[in-house]
Amino acid sequence: MPRPTCNSCLRPASRCWCDLVEQIDSGLPVWIIQHNDERGHAKNTGLLVSRCLSKASLMTEAQMGELKSRLGPNPVLLYPQLGDQSTPAVGSDASTISDLIIIDASWRKARKMVLSTPWLQELRRLSLDQPSTAPNQVRSSTVEGARSTYVAAIEALHQLQQLQVPLEQALRPYRHWQQRIINDQRPPS
Ligand SMILES: [Zn+2]
Q: For residue 163, which phi and psi values (nearest 5 degrees)?
């Protein structure tokens, strides 16, 4: 018999994290494009942050075309400026931003998605300019200081002064979620 699964967080019922969801006001619409490999992944936080943020939407790769038509006049992509782009990075004019787009994928796969999607490549980019306040303790990355999608979204909104609650309050669901993963990984004593 298949194990019962929670329809909301897509995890086995015994690992359901839905009780950790808290409503967090975001000033901006946040679009999270989820790589297909991330759906239902035990350590994915794209779904968690999309359920916590008041104006967030989780999109599949297949919905990217639809997303393009729903964006406001001045969207930005949370992605580093790698010297591969002519459009200016987001600077002091952050107040004019209409939408924040985040890719929910590993660095390698995110890069691939950007490189294969011309309209994403042309967007202005936002880079996080501070070291993370909530390092990722449950998922290794080849990139130093890599953030989970949850933390990246919250820290980006904070940097843009679009987070309507204190940073630490907005990070609380993530810290609880991470602690639960760590506890679940401990062998029973
Ligand atoms: Zn659940």
A: -85, 125
Q: Residue 31 corresponds to which tokens in the numbers above?
A: 């679009």
Pairing of strands 56-60, 75-78: unpaired
Q: 17-21, 76-80, 88-92: which range is least confident on average?
A: 88-92
Closest CA to 156 of 107, 90, 112: 90
Residue 88: pLDDT above 70? Answer: no
pLDDT tens-digit readout, 123-161: 999 999 888 888 788 887 767 667 999 999 999 999 999
Mean pLDDT estimate for the chain: 90
CA of 18 to the centre of ligand 1 (A): 4
Helices marked H in 124-166: 149-159
CA of 16 to the centre of ligand 1 (A): 4
Query: In a 3-state reduction of DSSP, which class is residue 30?
Result: strand
Q: Output the six-digit token pair for 163.
A: 């987070």
Task: Give the residue extent of every domain in the chain.
Answer: 28-80+90-130+146-182
Please give all residues whose CB falls under 5 A of ion ligand 1, grouped by chain where several chains appear: 6, 8-9, 16, 18
